[in-house]
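In the laboratory, one determines a bound structure by crystallizing the protein with its ligand and collecting diffraction data. In a computational setting the workflow is compressed into a single prediction: the sequence and the ligand go in, and a structural description comes out. We illustrate the idea with glycinamide ribonucleotide.
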Amino acid sequence: KTPVALMISGRGSNATALVRAAADPAFPARICLVLSNNPQAPGLEMARAAGLPTLAIDHRPFGKDRAAHEQALHAALTEAGAQAVCLAGYMRLLTPFLTQAWAGRMLNIHPSLLPSFPGLHTHERALDAGVRVHGCTVHLVTEGMDEGPILGQAAVPVLADDTADLLSARVLEQEHLLYPRALRHFLTRQPASASTASALLVA
Ligand code: GAR
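The predicted complex, in C-alpha cell form:
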C-alpha cells in the first residue's frame, strides 16, 4: 500500500471517506498521517478515533510567514513517509513551495465541475448561474488555484427548488464516492473504466 497523507481544515467528511476506503485491504493506499492547520478540526478527532497518526500545525503563530508554515507541513509529510497527499477540505491557499515539492503527487477535491466555479461558495454560484448540472472534481494540485489536471468528476442535477444547502449535500454524497475512486485510479494508474456508473465520471 502507498502511504498517503490527508490534509484537512475542518469537518473531515472526505477524509472519513478516504479513511474508510483505505481500511479495505484491497485499497492501494494506507493513511500515514492526517494533518491539519486547525487544531480544532473535527476531522482530527475522527482520525484519532480510527487510530491514525494526526498532527495539527496551526498557521496562526506563523502570521504572514506562509513559507515557514508550509516548510513545517512539508517536514511533517516527509517525516510520515507520505508518497502522496490528498487535500480534503484544506482551506488555505498553498504557495509554489508546497505545490512544487509535491507536484504530481498532491490531489485536491473541489465542489464544482471544474473549470467552472473555482474558489469559494461554489454551490451558491452554480445556483446563481442557473447551471442544470453541477458536481465535484478531483484534480492534481498545481500553482494555480483549482487548476491542475482533472483526475475524475462526478455530476449531479440541479433541481428546480434547490437551495445551496440541498445542492451541497447532493454534491457531498458524490464527493465521498469520487475521492476514493479517483485516488485508487491515480495510485494504480488504471485507465478509465467503461462500466463506471453514469453519475460518476472517473477519468
Ligand atoms: C468539501 O465539500 C470539499 O470539496 C470542499 O470543502 C468541503 C470540505 O468538507 N473543498 C474546497 O472547497 C476546497 N477549496 P469536508 O471537510 O467534510 O471534507
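The chain has six helices and eight strands. Keep in mind that any predicted model is a hypothesis to be tested, not a measurement.
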